[in-house]
Design goal:
141 residues; alpha/beta; five-stranded parallel β-sheet; Rossmann fold
């Protein structure tokens, strides 16, 4: 069984139809273990809140979507021990610490981070971190 760090950009595509949703949803049919930092659900809930605020979804549906996501088995890791590495990644690459925490988790757990965050993915293509990154559409390849 393979282990992958999963960022919120992929998980939200499990429950909201967007570009790359089919690729993200195919992960649910796989025999992988998914790792997430402890703020994962806060980040997902924030995306759901933004969708309601923009009129793209209802509050009731957002609540149900969050409840549905909590039923998916995920290995949760504390973010505090990852913070020094995440800060270094963020400073070196001009990326948000939140996004860098996912990558720090992948590095420390010696696996890859699966993302659908195109800006983050592209920004790290010419760095030493490229081997720890995996674009969501490339999971099955």
């Amino acid at each position: 069984m393979s282990r992958y760090v999963l960022d919120a950009s992929v998980a939200i595509k499990w429950v909201v139809t967007e570009v790359h949703s089919d690729a993200a949803r195919s992960l649910l049919k796989s025999n992988h273990t998914f790792l997430v930092p402890d703020f994962f659900f806060a980040e997902v809930a924030n995306v759901l809140w933004k969708r309601v605020r923009r009129g793209e979804d209802t509050a009731d549906n957002a609540r149900q979507t969050l409840a549905d996501l909590t039923t998916i088995p995920l290995e949760m890791y504390l973010s505090q021990p990852l913070m020094p590495l995440a800060l270094d990644i963020a400073l070196q690459n001009n990326r948000a610490v939140y996004d860098s925490l996912y990558l720090a988790l992948a590095i420390t757990q010696q696996c890859q981070m699966v993302t659908a965050d195109e800006k983050f993915y592209n920004a790290l293509q010419n760095t030493t971190y490229v081997n720890n990154l995996l674009w969501v559409e490339n999971m099955g390849r």
